[in-house]
Amino acid sequence: MGTGTPVLTPGDGGHRPEALSGTHGPAVQTFATTDVFAALGTSPRGLASADAAARRDRYGPNELPPAGRRGLWRDLVGQFTDLFAVVLLVASAITFLAYELQKPRDVGTLQLAVAILGVVVLNAAIGFAQEYSAERTAESLQAMVPHTCRVLRDGERRELPARDLVPGDVVVLEAGDAVPADCRLVEAHEVSVNNAALTGESDAVGRTADPVAAGPVLQARNCVFMGTDVVAGSAKAVVFASGAATEFGGIFRLAAAAPRQRTPLQRQVALMARRVAGTALAIGAALFAVRVPTGQPFVETFVFALGVMVALVPEGLPATLSVSLAIGVRRMARRHALVKQLLAVEALGSTTVVCTDKTGTLTQAEMTVVQVWAGGVPHAVSGVGYAPEGDVADPQPVRELLRAAALCSNARLVPPSANAGRYPQSDRQGWRVLGDTTEGALLVAAAKAGLDRAAEEAATPRVAEYPFDSVRKLMSTVHGGTVDGYHAYVKGAPQELLARCTRIDWSGERLPLTEELRAAVTAANDELASQGLRVLAAAWRPVSDSHSAQDEVESELTLLGLVGMFDPPRTEVSDAVTACRRARIRIVMVTGDHPLTAEAVARRVGIVSRSAPTVVTGARLDTLDDDGLDALLAAQGELLLCRVSPEHKMRVVTALQRRGEVVAVTGDGANDAPALKHADIGVAMGASGTDVAREAAVMVLLDDSFASIAAAVRLGRSVYQNIRKFLVYLFSHNIAELVPILAATFAGFPLVPISAVQILAIDLGSDVLPALALGAEPPEPDVMDRPPRARRERLFSSTVMGRILFLGGIQALGVTAVFFWHIHSSGMPYSDFTEDDTVYREAITMVQAGIVVSQFFNALAVRTDRQSVFRIGLLSNPWLLAGGGFGIALMAAISYLPPLQALFNTAPLAATDWAVLAAFGALLLAAEETRKWWLRRRQTTTPKGEAR
Ligand SMILES: Nc1ncnc2c1ncn2[C@@H]1O[C@H](COP(=O)(O)OP(=O)(O)OP(=O)(O)O)[C@@H](O)[C@H]1O
């Protein structure tokens, strides 16, 4: 640590110099700016690296401690207090009681009681493990989006992980940044922050660098705090508290863990499971009521009915659902889409409209100035990327234009040597822009014209700035060091800037901007824009003093010229656009850029294919009322929204939702946050987006690419499909378990065709792994060839119910037939059968094996919705084959191993028995294939078939 820093003493476990806390010694907000630097042992050049490292050792990383695992025990106990678990625990207790009351005691009853208890424990363990792993997944995904900030160290501006900040660091803040630590402002340009996370107040509040009176630090207008966001302006600030010692750290410690939210899908499954449990209860009661009058022993019948009920409860369902969603989340992460909420996985599958930005999402955001226009003459610029290698043809007339543009920029060029391959966003030669890429391109062009930006800035230092915002579409800076007072430089969207110009530099002369000259500028702008170039104009004027008001700075300007920059489209986007078209997802381009630029780019990536898309500007949107906007959106054509601001975006999202659309919208700026929050799926840019946008979104794209949105939609659709697959798989076999029992009861057969313990062995032994494997099925090849699922469509739609009945019905018929065929082939009357009878034991073994084998074929059958399963390859999901194989091996063990025979009352099956069961399973697959063939035929004859 440097000398003269006595006030920096670590607090108890915190990283706040005690003297600055506002309660001990002088409060940081009362200091003059120079004293702030002195008090924190730093300077306007920032800390020296060695000093920063020492402070880092002393104060620790700028992180909040992990939320802690205090929820673990609560989660575990929660698994046992859930409705299913309680029902099962009560059932187990009653069965134990029944065993105690039985005379003579039946060891089968005890086995059942233990089995039910086992079910509860196993279920709780699976549920707990799933929730834990889902949470860890969420945590690790969060960590994949690094939170960085800009810091001055050794007098240089650097980009560092926020965790490396220490008290004394000088940070540079801009609109859209999350404030990385508690800081005192030392320089502020029109800054306002949103303190909602700290104070709950959501309106932006202005901040200043001037000293204020002592008082609670949270209310000090010259301080900004961790956890809050900069919504406008730019600033420099000195960190005075980091990590747990920040105000936010205090709140964070106090905050109780928020209750875990269930997604609508999880709620639907839970509801369905509860309904099935209710039905099971009713069936159990009915069986009891039917069997007691036939003279069956009371306790045994009660235990039997209870067993049936327990067996029908879909135990593993919620856990399988969580696994399936978690797999979806992981697959999306692999495709560069980080989903922050499970909710988004579902919503993605039903997306009907994607409103997408242009720069960075459809294009590479690698801007290169290719043409400069000044005084009526275009000048070509050579070279690609950010390497300042290339030329401006005849640079002299455009030097003033590029000088103004460069001085009015905040970006910085980082050469390959300083980059050392650390940043993935570097261009091909390893150069990288720190800050806005549009500004980066201007700096490169200025360098190519022979300008040295550092020297220019030293000669005419900046004294004020009015930052860029996407509503005004302008940025201005004021510079001193000139002979005639101060010069203001303004750059921005040509139309906006032109409206504020009264003169133009034309071939060395300063001319009044006549209508004719305005028309010439507009024509030049249109010419550049129609080539798909992003166009910026630059202008200047002398101003009277360094603190001239924004209105003065941005009026009566002299236009210097136009700059056209090319941003190559992303190569992967056109395929993704085609996929979205096939999937009947509408793509609406929403851009702040010029209509001609937007249209040219849209054509390049395939969003526009017709000769004349509907192009609507923000100004036109302003003239439309809600009905007019609805009518515009109802016309299902190609739509480009240009020159729009984030407010327009928000309005369009709301209007689309009013029309029942499920809207995904991309955003990167701080003021995109409302639209991101409002949309069904807010998508933020991970690479270039602001912290605020990332916080507001439910999905973050690591690579910013539109193709990743399309990939996530595809995976979202497949997650939903997979969930339906295992629901059909699991519920259909319940029918196969129930029907033989009902048939035996009504046929007057005195014993059960399948015992409760056997059913539990199926539910928890042979069915679990194939169900999980179905949840992990890769997307079906035609998943993007269908229209989006309707928003209101229920998980258990009539199609799903129909399929459950179809497949379950076939299984049920088969096993019931097998059972009675075996019983009848012995020629014994029903009343002679006892539990120990070999024929009976063989018959119930056949029933259990029949369900296990047919479930194997069932799992294969449900892998596709409409397509033939042979098309995706019968053997293409190895997990499913392994899971099914395990189930059959388990069944064989139950049939052949004496201890298991004793437990399940089973008998060895003959090879012919297996052959019969396999033939029956194949029949089920054939029936389902026929049904799918019929569906496909119907689809080709009725092209507007339903979503599924
Ligand atoms: N740093 C800047 N300084 C001045 N003007 C700018 C700057 N960046 C962009 N502009 C101008 O403002 C217009 C709107 O830019 P903005 O960044 O709001 O658009 P956007 O919606 O992000 O565009 P896109 O869809 O291309 O991502 C641009 O066309 C450009 O003319």
Automatic annotation (TrEMBL):
It catalyses: ATP + H2O = ADP + phosphate + H(+). Signal peptide: none annotated. SMART domains: Cation_ATPase_N. Residues 1-24 are annotated as: Disordered. Belongs to the cation transport ATPase (P-type) (TC 3.A.3) family. Type IIA subfamily. It is a multi-pass membrane protein. The keyword Cell membrane applies. It holds the Pfam family E1-E2_ATPase. PROSITE patterns: ATPASE_E1_E2. Keywords: ATP-binding, Cell membrane, Membrane, Nucleotide-binding, Translocase, Transmembrane, Transmembrane helix. Its main location: membrane. Residues 27-100 form the Cation-transporting P-type ATPase N-terminal domain. The chain crosses the membrane at residues 76-98, 110-129, 269-290, 302-327, 795-823, 843-862, 874-897, 909-927. It is found in: Cell membrane. The keyword DNA repair does not apply. It comes from Streptomyces xiangluensis. Gene3D superfamilies: Calcium-transporting ATPase, cytoplasmic domain N, Calcium-transporting ATPase, cytoplasmic transduction domain A, Calcium-transporting ATPase, transmembrane domain, HAD superfamily/HAD-like. This is Cation-translocating P-type ATPase.
